Amino acid sequence: MVLKVFLCALLAICVTHIVALDLSQSQWIWTDTNELVPIYVSRDFRRDFTSPAGKIALDSEILIVADNNFTLYVNGEFIGQTFTEVESAFIFKYCVQLNPDYNVFAVTVENLPYTENPPGPTAPSPAAFRSAIQITYTDGSSDIIMTDTNWRANNVIPGFQSIHYNDSSWPYAVISPPGPIGGWFYTLQNQPDVSGVSLAGLNDPSYWIWTDEIPPQQPSSNAPIGSRAFRKRIEVPGGSVARSGVIIIDSDNAYVLYINGNLIGSGSDWQVAQRWKFTLDYPTDDIVIAVNATNSGGPAGLIVAIGFDAADCNCTTTRFAISDGTWKANHTVPAGFEQVDYDDCDWTPVVVEGAYGVAPWGQVTVQNAN
Q1: Chain segment 336-355, per-residue pLDDT in tens
Q2: What domain of life does the UniProt record list for this protein's source (predicted)?
Q3: N or C: where does the chain have the smaller number of CB atoms within 10 Å of the terminal CB?
């Protein structure tokens, strides 16, 4: 960590000449020249890069867009993914720390049904992805990798994302036939920043959750009266760290919210969600959201959406998370449950009641709380 801080300080002095990254020189690529691909077909892509002699790689800025879903890895580590056709119109940005001399960028791309006609929801449709990767060195210089015919492409292969995987037998990717809108089939836009966080979500909406004292997918079920504890740990991938963000939260009936042990705020009207801005005590790759939620009778629920800035030296991007089935819950509110190092391994998974907008809560008002 001391070395990384030193390198970041050095880089801050040297990178003033690095230009903004964009996709203008990159190509849409796929595994063959067929314009139409069967739905739910996935393909794997790899690109390795060796630092030039005398250069030490520090970090990377990655822009990526896919038709339709992508899963991105760097040196075998999961970095990010998309889930819906809606996201095919967004250029996503990631900041990833690199190895000094050799790095591998790996992507799985899945084709989804094209919801508009033609060709229709079950017919084959165009598929491809596009990326630009800026690699920054410790001396402040940089190189840029684009999607082109230097990438390797193949059918889905287990373990393909490993830095040690041998892709020498893979064929090279091909340039995809252009589409009608700026060379493809979507009008591309950058992903939202933290101001774009919402309960409706960019891809999946946030979900109302509660303890396993109520049945799943039955949001109108009555829950026991009293307070319950909820926790969600978010690990920031790629060597980036978080410092600040925005969180939207609502609870039926009341909540007290903590992030990394610090009290953020509280609310007691389920018809009005609150939007809180927060700043962490120190940059970290480990964010813990903890909520003391109280039900005063009838149905009970908790819903959350969070966006935060993740940075690695000279690169900053926005990451999002929601309340869903990955959260944990406790039937009590243990002392110290809000602390980052609290052990919640024996807590139970939450029950998912339904997506944002489900009855009895419907669409709620969101107000700024600070």
Answers
A1: 999 999 999 999 999 999 99
A2: Eukaryota
A3: N
